[in-house]
Specification:
100 residues; 2 helices; 4% strand; Aldehyde oxidase/xanthine dehydrogenase a/b hammerhead domain-containing protein
Amino acid sequence: MSEFSVFGKPLPRIDAWPKTTGEVKYLDDIKMPGMLCGKILRSPHAHARIASIDTTEAERLSGVRAVITAKDTPGIKFSFIQALADKLPLCKDKVRYVGE
């Protein structure tokens, strides 16, 4: 049996220096011509019914190209988590927890 083992031993972080000096590019560092940015408004309420969503104030903001709600994406289902793949990406009638 081999004597080689990494358990209980410090391992050198070969990526530490570029990360601490700012050499590494993160996703937020990438800018492309015509690129748009998105913002998500999450619910400040838990177990709440959505009576209506007024988007007029957001639509008036400078630089806003679109404000999207669940009404704009009927039937589109998506999730990065396979177990939630049949869930709608935007809340339509209710939210279950703060931050949904």
